[in-house]
Each structure stands twice: as C-alpha cells, then as structure tokens.
Fold this sequence. Notes:
By secondary structure, the protein is α/β, with parallel strands linked by helices. The protein has a single domain (3-268), classed as Alpha-Beta Barrel (TIM Barrel). The chain is 48% helix and 14% strand. It is built from 13 helices and eight strands. It starts with a strand and ends with a helix.
Amino acid sequence: MLTDAHCHPFYLNQVFPEAEEELKRLHVLCAASSTGLEEFAYNEDLSRRAAGILPCFAIHPQLPASKKHVTEGELERGLEAMESLAAQGRLAAVGETGFDLYNAAFKETEAVQDRLFATHLETALQHDLPVIIHARRAMHKVFAAAKTLTKCRAVIFHSWSGTPEEGYALLRRGVNAYFSFGAVIMLNHKQAMRCAALFPQDRLLAETDAPYQPPRAQEFSHWTDLSRIIETMAALRREDAEGKHAASPCSDTGELEEQIEENFRAAFRLRP
C-alpha cells in the first residue's frame, strides 16, 4: 500500500478537483497536515469519506512571518485549538512544526518559533502523539531539542534536508526518527539522494507534500507521484549497494513500498 507521510489535501483539492477520486483509487494512507482550523475541518471530513486519512495539526513555523498582521492572540488561539483537538483524540500527529530560518524574514521570528515549537512538543508528549518536523537551515535547533525529542513517540522529518551524518547522530541520541523524502530525490538534490540511499530501510518514509513539491514539468504534486518517488529511492539504494555503502540491504520497488508502509504504520501506531 502506498503511504504519504506529509501532504495538504485541502490545498491540493483547490488545484486538482480529482484529488479525492485519485486518493480512493490508489488507497493511499496519508498524514494530512493542517495549519488552520478550516484546513483541519476539511481533512477531518475527508477522513470520514476516504479511509486512511490521518488529520494532523500545528502552527507552521513560517506563519509568524508569512502574515503581516498575525497577532499574538491568533497564535494563542491556534495553540489552544491544537491542545483541544489532541485532548479530544482527534489528532494523529502534531505537525508540521519546527523551524524555518531560510531567509531574513523568517529569522526575525526565531524567538516566536522557539516558543511555538516548545508548546507543540508539550502537547505531543502529553497526548503521546508523533511529531512531524519542518526544518530549513535549522538543524542546530533540532539538535538543541534532541533530549526532548527522545521522549516523543516518533519524530517524522518532513522532506528531510539534513546530512547523512546528522540523521545518524539523531538515531544514536535515541530519537525515534523517521526520514521522509519526496520529489527532491528526483530533482538531482544530491544530499537528499544520498540520505535516501544510505539510511536504514526501517527509517524511510515517502511523501508528496502535495501540492507543493511537484516533480519536474508538473504544476503540482499529487498521489500518483508516490510510486515514482519509491522507484527512485529503490534505484538509489541499488546503486549505493553496488558501491557497498548501503546501511541495510537494498530492495526492489515492491519490497521497499512494503517496508515504507510498515514504517508509516509503526510511526503512527496503525494496525497492519
């Protein structure tokens, strides 16, 4: 079964009205990200119509910088909503949360991001939920939080952007980390490709980040991309195995798809 560790069905539906039909046809298990209550309501309703949708919620780390007039009150109401949804058992994960220091505007909100991230982790720990992390140019922030992350049920790195050494370092520190890869491994992103080739197979996940991470020559990403992503990951692992650097035995595409599904179910505690 295909699995998508990170996607935005609410926004995908706006550019691709056939998204729900495709989801049902492919029987995809999805972690559906929500950064606002309207988006969460859509994802929760979709989960009633399409089996396998796992609604998630968090305040995105870009939000404080991306809205000129976002207020402290709005952030607080978002945190209160997240806590309420978690307490009601309506969340499959807290995410995506984390840090984005990609540009000057985002860096200006670093202190706010720190506070938001700490609150997200508190909610995840209190309600025993996985955490989905967004980190751009911020791996030092992730390592600063590593001690707390070791207490989390699972830590899913959306569109992993670190190095192989950083990934292994998190595992050595006891973080129950899963590393998710999307279309970037088909776009000649050397570091992501190397990580997808080297990481242990029981730590790999696949994602579309739909509609935001399209393969080359596509306007947006959607669920049919998952098969190509897994095929690419399997090919990278076969190539690396020939060089005898693979961290675990390589697989053909079908075996890797099965392993990634097993990883997804383990991270979200889903029954086979």
